Amino acid sequence: MLGYIDKIREISKRLLDEGRVDMIIGFRKGTIPMMNEPCFVKNSGELSTLVWDSNCGINLANYLTDRKEKIGIVAKGCDSRNIVTHIIENKIKREKLVIIGIPCKGMIDKRKVAGMFENGIDDITEEDNILRVKSRGVETSLKKSDLLQENCELCIHRNPVIYDELAGPLVEEQKDVDRYADVRRIEAMTAPEKWEYFKDLISPCIRCYACRNACPLCYCPTCFVDESRPQWCGKGQDEIDTRTFHFLRAYHCAGRCTDCGACERACPVGIKVRQFTSKLNKDCLDMFGWEAGLSPDQRPPLDTYKPADPGDFIK
Amino acid sequence: MEHMGVEPGRLSFSWISSAESTKFVEVVKDVTATVKALGPNNNFKKAAKVA
Protein backbone atom coordinates (compact mmCIF):
# COMPACT_ATOMS: atom_id res chain seq x y z
CA MET A 1 0.00 0.00 0.00
CA LEU A 2 2.86 2.37 0.80
CA GLY A 3 4.32 2.19 -2.69
CA TYR A 4 1.18 3.82 -4.02
CA ILE A 5 2.14 7.30 -2.98
CA ASP A 6 4.85 7.80 -5.61
CA LYS A 7 2.45 6.69 -8.27
CA ILE A 8 -0.35 8.90 -6.86
CA ARG A 9 1.97 11.92 -6.91
CA GLU A 10 3.21 11.08 -10.40
CA ILE A 11 -0.33 10.75 -11.79
CA SER A 12 -1.49 13.86 -9.95
CA LYS A 13 1.43 15.89 -11.27
CA ARG A 14 0.67 14.83 -14.82
CA LEU A 15 -3.03 15.62 -14.44
CA LEU A 16 -2.40 19.04 -12.93
CA ASP A 17 0.38 20.00 -15.35
CA GLU A 18 -1.65 18.97 -18.36
CA GLY A 19 -4.58 20.96 -17.04
CA ARG A 20 -6.86 17.94 -17.08
CA VAL A 21 -7.96 18.68 -13.54
CA ASP A 22 -8.22 21.82 -11.41
CA MET A 23 -7.45 19.98 -8.22
CA ILE A 24 -6.63 16.65 -6.70
CA ILE A 25 -8.54 15.38 -3.69
CA GLY A 26 -6.36 13.13 -1.60
CA PHE A 27 -5.00 12.69 1.89
CA ARG A 28 -2.35 14.50 3.84
CA LYS A 29 -0.81 13.68 7.18
CA GLY A 30 -3.01 14.60 10.10
CA THR A 31 -1.86 16.44 13.20
CA ILE A 32 -1.96 13.31 15.34
CA PRO A 33 -1.00 9.73 14.43
CA MET A 34 -3.56 7.59 12.56
CA MET A 35 -5.64 10.62 11.59
CA ASN A 36 -4.91 11.43 7.97
CA GLU A 37 -7.08 14.21 6.69
CA PRO A 38 -8.52 15.00 3.29
CA CYS A 39 -6.77 17.71 1.31
CA PHE A 40 -7.28 19.57 -1.95
CA VAL A 41 -4.14 20.10 -3.98
CA LYS A 42 -4.42 22.78 -6.64
CA ASN A 43 -0.87 23.12 -7.95
CA SER A 44 1.78 20.53 -8.55
CA GLY A 45 4.21 22.21 -6.14
CA GLU A 46 2.11 21.05 -3.20
CA LEU A 47 1.98 17.42 -4.21
CA SER A 48 4.52 16.38 -1.58
CA THR A 49 1.84 16.92 1.06
CA LEU A 50 -0.13 13.97 -0.32
CA VAL A 51 0.28 10.72 1.59
CA TRP A 52 -1.07 7.21 1.41
CA ASP A 53 -1.01 4.64 4.19
CA SER A 54 -3.46 2.61 6.22
CA ASN A 55 -5.00 5.63 7.92
CA CYS A 56 -6.91 6.94 4.93
CA GLY A 57 -10.26 5.58 6.02
CA ILE A 58 -12.29 8.71 5.40
CA ASN A 59 -14.46 8.55 2.30
CA LEU A 60 -13.31 11.16 -0.19
CA ALA A 61 -16.46 10.91 -2.31
CA ASN A 62 -17.95 13.12 0.39
CA TYR A 63 -16.01 16.09 -1.00
CA LEU A 64 -17.36 15.79 -4.54
CA THR A 65 -20.96 16.74 -3.89
CA ASP A 66 -22.13 19.37 -6.39
CA ARG A 67 -18.59 20.42 -7.30
CA LYS A 68 -18.23 22.19 -10.60
CA GLU A 69 -14.44 21.97 -11.10
CA LYS A 70 -12.57 19.24 -12.90
CA ILE A 71 -11.38 16.98 -10.14
CA GLY A 72 -8.82 14.26 -9.79
CA ILE A 73 -9.79 12.06 -6.88
CA VAL A 74 -7.93 9.32 -5.08
CA ALA A 75 -10.36 6.45 -4.57
CA LYS A 76 -10.25 3.15 -2.70
CA GLY A 77 -12.81 0.46 -3.50
CA CYS A 78 -15.44 1.95 -1.23
CA ASP A 79 -14.75 5.53 -2.33
CA SER A 80 -15.18 4.49 -5.95
CA ARG A 81 -18.54 2.89 -5.14
CA ASN A 82 -19.65 6.11 -3.50
CA ILE A 83 -18.49 8.03 -6.55
CA VAL A 84 -20.72 5.74 -8.63
CA THR A 85 -23.59 6.46 -6.25
CA HIS A 86 -22.90 10.18 -6.61
CA ILE A 87 -22.99 9.85 -10.39
CA ILE A 88 -26.28 7.90 -10.26
CA GLU A 89 -27.79 10.52 -7.97
CA ASN A 90 -26.61 13.41 -10.17
CA LYS A 91 -24.35 14.84 -7.51
CA ILE A 92 -21.32 14.89 -9.79
CA LYS A 93 -20.70 14.39 -13.49
CA ARG A 94 -18.48 11.54 -14.59
CA GLU A 95 -16.82 13.81 -17.19
CA LYS A 96 -15.64 16.12 -14.43
CA LEU A 97 -13.69 13.37 -12.74
CA VAL A 98 -10.40 11.65 -13.18
CA ILE A 99 -10.44 8.79 -10.73
CA ILE A 100 -7.11 7.58 -9.42
CA GLY A 101 -7.99 4.07 -8.25
CA ILE A 102 -6.33 2.54 -5.23
CA PRO A 103 -6.49 -1.23 -4.85
CA CYS A 104 -6.96 -1.24 -1.09
CA LYS A 105 -5.88 -3.74 1.52
CA GLY A 106 -7.89 -2.30 4.32
CA MET A 107 -7.53 0.53 6.78
CA ILE A 108 -6.48 0.11 10.37
CA ASP A 109 -8.88 0.59 13.21
CA LYS A 110 -7.41 3.51 15.12
CA ARG A 111 -9.40 2.63 18.21
CA LYS A 112 -8.07 -0.91 18.36
CA VAL A 113 -4.49 0.35 18.08
CA ALA A 114 -4.96 3.26 20.48
CA GLY A 115 -6.55 0.91 23.01
CA MET A 116 -3.38 -1.17 23.12
CA PHE A 117 -1.14 1.68 24.24
CA GLU A 118 -2.14 3.35 27.44
CA ASN A 119 0.73 5.84 27.24
CA GLY A 120 -0.51 7.19 23.95
CA ILE A 121 1.04 6.85 20.53
CA ASP A 122 3.83 9.14 19.43
CA ASP A 123 4.32 7.84 15.96
CA ILE A 124 3.28 5.00 13.76
CA THR A 125 4.97 3.71 10.63
CA GLU A 126 4.15 0.78 8.44
CA GLU A 127 5.76 -1.60 6.05
CA ASP A 128 3.70 -4.15 4.16
CA ASN A 129 1.80 -5.97 6.87
CA ILE A 130 3.82 -4.64 9.81
CA LEU A 131 2.89 -1.61 11.89
CA ARG A 132 5.58 -0.10 14.10
CA VAL A 133 4.07 1.86 16.91
CA LYS A 134 6.17 4.19 19.05
CA SER A 135 4.84 4.89 22.49
CA ARG A 136 7.03 6.73 25.02
CA GLY A 137 10.18 5.68 23.18
CA VAL A 138 9.22 1.99 23.08
CA GLU A 139 8.68 0.53 19.66
CA THR A 140 6.23 -2.31 19.17
CA SER A 141 5.61 -4.25 15.99
CA LEU A 142 2.06 -5.30 15.19
CA LYS A 143 0.45 -7.19 12.38
CA LYS A 144 -1.74 -4.90 10.33
CA SER A 145 -4.11 -7.65 9.25
CA ASP A 146 -5.13 -8.18 12.90
CA LEU A 147 -6.04 -4.54 13.34
CA LEU A 148 -8.24 -3.75 10.37
CA GLN A 149 -11.45 -1.79 10.66
CA GLU A 150 -14.36 -4.17 10.88
CA ASN A 151 -15.82 -3.12 7.54
CA CYS A 152 -12.41 -3.61 5.89
CA GLU A 153 -12.13 -7.10 7.36
CA LEU A 154 -15.49 -7.89 5.76
CA CYS A 155 -14.84 -6.05 2.50
CA ILE A 156 -15.30 -7.85 -0.81
CA HIS A 157 -14.78 -4.85 -3.05
CA ARG A 158 -11.22 -3.76 -2.36
CA ASN A 159 -10.50 -2.79 -5.93
CA PRO A 160 -12.06 0.37 -7.30
CA VAL A 161 -15.11 -0.30 -9.49
CA ILE A 162 -14.43 2.64 -11.80
CA TYR A 163 -11.13 4.37 -12.38
CA ASP A 164 -9.13 6.19 -15.03
CA GLU A 165 -5.71 5.62 -13.56
CA LEU A 166 -4.46 2.99 -11.15
CA ALA A 167 -1.91 3.51 -8.41
CA GLY A 168 -0.89 -0.13 -8.37
CA PRO A 169 -1.83 -3.60 -9.56
CA LEU A 170 -5.31 -4.79 -8.58
CA VAL A 171 -5.39 -6.85 -5.40
CA GLU A 172 -7.08 -10.16 -4.87
CA GLU A 173 -10.58 -9.79 -3.44
CA GLN A 174 -11.37 -11.52 -0.17
CA LYS A 175 -13.51 -14.59 -0.56
CA ASP A 176 -15.77 -16.56 1.77
CA VAL A 177 -16.27 -13.60 4.05
CA ASP A 178 -19.22 -13.86 6.41
CA ARG A 179 -20.30 -10.25 6.15
CA TYR A 180 -23.51 -10.34 8.11
CA ALA A 181 -22.73 -12.41 11.19
CA ASP A 182 -23.53 -9.41 13.41
CA VAL A 183 -26.84 -8.79 11.68
CA ARG A 184 -27.90 -12.42 12.11
CA ARG A 185 -27.00 -12.26 15.79
CA ILE A 186 -29.39 -9.33 16.23
CA GLU A 187 -32.05 -10.92 14.03
CA ALA A 188 -32.12 -13.86 16.39
CA MET A 189 -33.09 -11.62 19.34
CA THR A 190 -36.64 -10.96 20.51
CA ALA A 191 -38.17 -7.50 19.97
CA PRO A 192 -37.50 -6.24 23.53
CA GLU A 193 -33.93 -7.57 23.37
CA LYS A 194 -33.37 -5.73 20.11
CA TRP A 195 -34.78 -2.56 21.64
CA GLU A 196 -32.40 -2.86 24.58
CA TYR A 197 -29.47 -3.75 22.33
CA PHE A 198 -29.83 -0.57 20.30
CA LYS A 199 -30.54 1.44 23.43
CA ASP A 200 -27.19 0.35 24.85
CA LEU A 201 -25.49 0.80 21.51
CA ILE A 202 -26.43 4.47 21.18
CA SER A 203 -26.37 5.38 24.86
CA PRO A 204 -22.99 7.20 24.58
CA CYS A 205 -24.19 9.25 21.58
CA ILE A 206 -23.62 12.99 22.02
CA ARG A 207 -25.53 13.94 18.86
CA CYS A 208 -22.49 15.56 17.27
CA TYR A 209 -23.58 14.28 13.85
CA ALA A 210 -20.02 13.33 12.92
CA CYS A 211 -21.41 10.10 11.42
CA ARG A 212 -23.69 12.11 9.21
CA ASN A 213 -21.01 14.60 8.20
CA ALA A 214 -18.49 11.90 7.34
CA CYS A 215 -21.02 10.06 5.19
CA PRO A 216 -20.91 10.76 1.45
CA LEU A 217 -24.60 9.87 1.21
CA CYS A 218 -25.65 12.65 3.56
CA TYR A 219 -25.68 15.69 1.33
CA CYS A 220 -29.14 17.19 1.87
CA PRO A 221 -28.89 21.00 1.96
CA THR A 222 -30.76 20.92 5.26
CA CYS A 223 -30.64 17.70 7.21
CA PHE A 224 -33.87 16.60 8.90
CA VAL A 225 -32.21 16.92 12.29
CA ASP A 226 -31.36 20.57 11.61
CA GLU A 227 -34.85 21.50 10.46
CA SER A 228 -36.77 23.54 12.98
CA ARG A 229 -39.98 24.12 11.04
CA PRO A 230 -41.23 21.50 11.54
CA GLN A 231 -38.88 20.05 14.07
CA TRP A 232 -38.84 16.39 13.11
CA CYS A 233 -36.60 15.38 15.91
CA GLY A 234 -35.75 16.97 19.27
CA LYS A 235 -32.27 18.39 19.50
CA GLY A 236 -31.36 17.34 23.01
CA GLN A 237 -29.92 14.08 24.19
CA ASP A 238 -33.25 12.55 24.99
CA GLU A 239 -32.97 8.85 24.36
CA ILE A 240 -35.93 8.78 22.01
CA ASP A 241 -34.66 11.72 19.95
CA THR A 242 -31.25 10.10 19.65
CA ARG A 243 -32.88 6.88 18.56
CA THR A 244 -35.04 8.69 16.03
CA PHE A 245 -31.94 10.29 14.58
CA HIS A 246 -30.12 6.97 14.26
CA PHE A 247 -33.17 5.19 12.79
CA LEU A 248 -33.69 7.87 10.20
CA ARG A 249 -30.04 8.30 9.35
CA ALA A 250 -29.87 4.58 8.66
CA TYR A 251 -33.02 4.59 6.52
CA HIS A 252 -31.69 7.41 4.39
CA CYS A 253 -28.78 5.13 3.53
CA ALA A 254 -30.94 2.20 2.45
CA GLY A 255 -29.77 0.79 -0.85
CA ARG A 256 -27.04 3.41 -1.01
CA CYS A 257 -24.63 2.47 1.76
CA THR A 258 -21.35 0.96 0.57
CA ASP A 259 -20.22 0.04 4.08
CA CYS A 260 -17.17 2.30 3.80
CA GLY A 261 -17.09 2.66 7.56
CA ALA A 262 -16.57 6.43 7.52
CA CYS A 263 -19.44 6.89 10.02
CA GLU A 264 -17.98 4.48 12.51
CA ARG A 265 -14.50 5.91 12.07
CA ALA A 266 -15.74 9.46 12.61
CA CYS A 267 -17.73 8.70 15.76
CA PRO A 268 -15.90 10.32 18.68
CA VAL A 269 -17.40 7.95 21.22
CA GLY A 270 -16.94 4.78 19.23
CA ILE A 271 -20.55 3.78 18.57
CA LYS A 272 -20.82 0.95 16.07
CA VAL A 273 -23.17 2.88 13.83
CA ARG A 274 -22.71 0.33 11.07
CA GLN A 275 -24.98 -1.98 13.05
CA PHE A 276 -27.90 0.03 11.70
CA THR A 277 -26.85 0.16 8.05
CA SER A 278 -25.58 -3.44 7.85
CA LYS A 279 -29.10 -4.77 8.22
CA LEU A 280 -30.31 -2.58 5.36
CA ASN A 281 -27.38 -3.68 3.22
CA LYS A 282 -28.15 -7.30 3.95
CA ASP A 283 -31.84 -6.84 3.14
CA CYS A 284 -30.99 -5.10 -0.13
CA LEU A 285 -28.77 -7.99 -1.08
CA ASP A 286 -31.27 -10.67 -0.02
CA MET A 287 -34.37 -9.06 -1.50
CA PHE A 288 -33.06 -7.23 -4.54
CA GLY A 289 -29.63 -8.78 -5.12
CA TRP A 290 -28.28 -5.28 -4.83
CA GLU A 291 -25.01 -3.92 -3.61
CA ALA A 292 -24.67 -0.17 -3.85
CA GLY A 293 -22.34 1.57 -6.25
CA LEU A 294 -21.14 -1.28 -8.40
CA SER A 295 -22.15 0.15 -11.76
CA PRO A 296 -23.24 3.60 -12.97
CA ASP A 297 -25.62 1.93 -15.44
CA GLN A 298 -27.87 0.25 -12.90
CA ARG A 299 -30.64 2.08 -11.10
CA PRO A 300 -30.89 1.43 -7.36
CA PRO A 301 -33.75 -0.82 -6.11
CA LEU A 302 -35.49 2.03 -4.31
CA ASP A 303 -36.07 4.06 -7.46
CA THR A 304 -37.12 1.27 -9.80
CA TYR A 305 -40.11 -1.01 -9.83
CA LYS A 306 -39.91 -4.61 -10.88
CA PRO A 307 -42.94 -6.91 -10.81
CA ALA A 308 -40.89 -9.43 -8.86
CA ASP A 309 -40.09 -7.00 -6.03
CA PRO A 310 -40.97 -8.52 -2.66
CA GLY A 311 -44.22 -7.02 -1.40
CA ASP A 312 -45.43 -9.44 1.28
CA PHE A 313 -45.35 -6.74 3.95
CA ILE A 314 -48.10 -4.79 2.15
CA LYS A 315 -51.54 -5.84 3.27
CA MET B 1 -37.87 -1.14 12.04
CA GLU B 2 -38.44 -4.53 13.62
CA HIS B 3 -34.72 -5.15 13.42
CA MET B 4 -34.19 -2.15 15.66
CA GLY B 5 -36.63 -3.32 18.27
CA VAL B 6 -40.06 -2.03 17.22
CA GLU B 7 -42.58 -4.80 17.96
CA PRO B 8 -43.80 -6.79 15.00
CA GLY B 9 -47.32 -5.64 14.14
CA ARG B 10 -46.86 -2.10 15.41
CA LEU B 11 -46.17 -0.86 11.92
CA SER B 12 -48.25 -1.82 8.90
CA PHE B 13 -48.24 -0.98 5.24
CA SER B 14 -51.05 -1.32 2.79
CA TRP B 15 -52.02 -0.23 -0.67
CA ILE B 16 -55.65 0.81 -0.95
CA SER B 17 -57.26 2.54 -3.87
CA SER B 18 -59.73 5.36 -3.22
CA ALA B 19 -62.36 3.04 -4.69
CA GLU B 20 -61.65 0.25 -2.22
CA SER B 21 -63.62 1.53 0.74
CA THR B 22 -64.40 -1.94 2.02
CA LYS B 23 -60.73 -2.91 1.97
CA PHE B 24 -59.92 0.31 3.84
CA VAL B 25 -62.39 -0.56 6.59
CA GLU B 26 -61.05 -4.08 6.82
CA VAL B 27 -57.44 -2.95 7.06
CA VAL B 28 -58.22 -0.30 9.66
CA LYS B 29 -60.12 -2.82 11.77
CA ASP B 30 -57.29 -5.26 11.42
CA VAL B 31 -54.55 -2.78 12.30
CA THR B 32 -56.50 -1.41 15.26
CA ALA B 33 -57.05 -4.90 16.62
CA THR B 34 -53.35 -5.81 16.25
CA VAL B 35 -52.18 -2.62 17.91
CA LYS B 36 -54.73 -2.94 20.73
CA ALA B 37 -53.52 -6.46 21.35
CA LEU B 38 -49.95 -5.17 21.64
CA GLY B 39 -51.04 -2.62 24.23
CA PRO B 40 -49.72 0.92 24.69
CA ASN B 41 -46.46 1.75 22.97
CA ASN B 42 -44.01 2.49 25.73
CA ASN B 43 -40.96 2.39 23.55
CA PHE B 44 -41.26 5.66 21.73
CA LYS B 45 -42.39 7.69 24.68
CA LYS B 46 -40.38 10.59 25.92
CA ALA B 47 -39.82 10.82 29.64
CA ALA B 48 -40.48 14.54 29.78
CA LYS B 49 -42.67 16.53 27.51
CA VAL B 50 -40.79 19.07 25.47
CA ALA B 51 -42.32 22.52 25.54
Characteristic terms for this protein:
A: 315 residues, alpha/beta, three-stranded antiparallel beta sheet, 10 helices, 9 strands, B: 51 residues, mainly alpha, 1 helix, 0% strand, elongated
Q: Can you tell me about this structure?
A:
The complex is a heterodimer of chains A (315) and B (51). By secondary structure, chain A is an alpha/beta fold. Chain A folds into 2 domains: 1-106 and 156-170, no CATH class; 179-301, no CATH class. Chain A has 10 helices and 9 strands. The longest helix of chain A is centred in the last third of the chain and has 15 residues, at 274-288. Chain A starts with a helix and ends in a 27-residue tail after the last helix. Chain B has one helix at residues 21-38. Chain B has 51 residues and is mostly helical. Chain B has a domain at 13-37. The longest helix of chain B has 18 residues, at 21-38.
What secondary-structure arrangement, pairings included, does this model have?
The complex is a heterodimer of chains A (315) and B (51).
Chain A: H1 4-17, E1 23-28, E2 37-41, E3 50-51, E4 71-75, H2 77-88, E5 97-101, H3 110-116, E6 123-127, E7 130-135, E8 138-143, H4 150-153, E9 165-166, H5 181-187, H6 191-202, H7 210-214, H8 239-252, H9 262-266, H10 274-288
Parallel strand pairs in A: 1-4, 4-5, 5-9
Antiparallel strand pairs in A: 1-2, 1-3, 6-7, 7-8
Chain B: H1 21-38
